[in-house]
């Protein structure tokens, strides 16, 4: 049987001002999975992550962490296993130096100093920031701050990371490197990751499973190539297809190019092979 670490069961939530943010959300996250919540602004991604992390409590439905209802768990028990990285690292980092920031969580958990030093060094290495312990947070780039925020959770020994738009605000290379980092944490480090994103272009290619969220409801879930289907279905959820997929869709449906019923390609490489096959025929 698959080892389910986090299970969301029929969760609905309205903010105190009666904004209905989520309704009837159910999903399961298995151990080591790298899952994406894809949705336009306001679709409920941040709210869902906050519910999964136990920050918002007065929702209906249930969230189970390793089988236990998180409403019955102490914050300490939750934070020993799972943590949320905010969208903006400036909301997360508050100590003056990298070392102080990354060691803050472990210190609060009552870890021994030698263990803390080891954990901090290892966490900084995992996010590609080794050697930066003495640096001033304010001197780091936005992307480096995002990495330090992730290191802060890894240093506490978190096995489950919830990440709110970890690639938002990064330049194209930074976005690629962040996705590579998260993939290696998941595939090599065995860390279970749930990330929110509104990016349709690069991010989904790295994910094991993608859930589309629209106006507080889960619309579809599956492998990236199963989720990106037709332009109008993406417009319905205020998203669009990856550009390369849209090109192939239009060639097929609007220009009558004979492409068979293969899934839409999501990368230049896949589209290139598909088109070459046709041109050669
Ligand atoms: N503190 C709040 N009070 C009232 N409404 C909120 C609050 N935070 C978010 N919302 C609303 O809840 C909905 C979902 O927001 P959010 O979870 O932030 O979406 P996303 O992260 O996908 O952009 C939106 O309609 C948003 O305006
Ligand atoms: Mg958000």
Can you walk me through this structure?
- The protein is of the alpha/beta class.
- It folds into three domains: 1-73 and 165-224, P-loop containing nucleotide triphosphate hydrolases (Rossmann fold); 91-156, no CATH class; 242-281.
- It has ten helices and ten strands.
- The strands form two sheets. It has a six-stranded mixed beta sheet with strand order 6-7-8-3-9-10, sandwiched between helices.
- Strand 9 (209-214) and strand 10 form a beta hairpin.
- The longest helix has 16 residues, at 172-187.
- The radius of gyration is 20 Å and the shape is globular.
- The N and C termini lie far apart (45 Å).
- The mean pLDDT is 94.
- Adenosine-5'-diphosphate is lined by residues 15, 17, 19, 21, 39, 41-47.
CATH architecture of the largest domain: 3-Layer(aba) Sandwich
Averaged pLDDT, please? Answer: 94
Shape: globular
Main sheet properties: 6 strands, mixed
Task: Give the termini distance in whole angstroms.
Answer: 45 Å
Overall SS class:
alpha/beta
Overall CATH class of the largest domain: Alpha Beta
Tell me the number of helical segments per DSSP (H or I, 4 or more residues long): 10
Radius of gyration: 20 Å
SSE topology string: EEEHEEHEHHHEHEEEHHHH
- What compounds sit in this structure? adenosine-5'-diphosphate, magnesium ion
Query: Which regions contain 5 or more consecutive residues with pLDDT less than 50?
Result: none
Tally of domains? 3
The number of E-state strands comes to 10
CATH homologous superfamily of the largest domain, by name?
P-loop containing nucleotide triphosphate hydrolases
Write out the strand line-up for the largest beta sheet, numbering strands in chain order. 6-7-8-3-9-10
What level of helicity do the residues show?
25-40%
| Beta-strand content | 15-25%
């Amino acid at each position: 049987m698959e080892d389910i670490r986090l299970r969301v069961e029929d969760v609905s939530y309205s903010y105190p001002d009666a904004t209905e943010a989520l309704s009837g959300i159910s999903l399961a996250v298995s151990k080591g999975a790298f899952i994406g919540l894809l949705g336009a602004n306001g679709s409920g991604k941040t709210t869902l992550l906050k519910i999964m992390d136990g920050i918002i409590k007065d929702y209906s439905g249930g969230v189970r962490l390793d089988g236990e209802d998180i409403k019955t768990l102490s914050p300490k028990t939750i934070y020993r296993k799972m943590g949320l990285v905010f969208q903006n690292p400036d909301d997360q980092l508050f100590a003056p130096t990298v070392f102080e920031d990354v060691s803050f969580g472990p210190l609060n958990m009552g870890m021994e100093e030698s263990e803390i030093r080891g954990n901090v060094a290892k966490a900084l290495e995992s996010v590609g920031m080794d050697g930066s312990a003495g640096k001033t947070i304010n001197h780091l780039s936005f992307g480096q701050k995002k990495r330090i925020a992730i290191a802060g959770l890894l240093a506490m020994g978190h096995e489950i990371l919830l990440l709110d738009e970890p690639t938002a605000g990064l330049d194209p290379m930074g976005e690629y490197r962040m996705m590579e980092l998260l993939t290696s944490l998941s595939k090599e480090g065995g860390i279970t990751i749930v990330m929110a994103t509104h990016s349709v272009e690069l991010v989904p290619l790295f994910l094991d499973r993608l859930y589309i969220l629209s106006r507080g409801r889960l619309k579809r879930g599956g492998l990236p190539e199963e989720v990106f289907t037709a332009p109008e279905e993406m417009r319905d959820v205020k998203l669009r297809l990856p550009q390369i997929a849209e090109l192939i869709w239009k060639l097929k449906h609007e220009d009558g190019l004979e492409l068979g019923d293969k899934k839409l390609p999501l990368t230049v490489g896949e589209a290139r092979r598909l088109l070459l096959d046709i041109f050669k025929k």
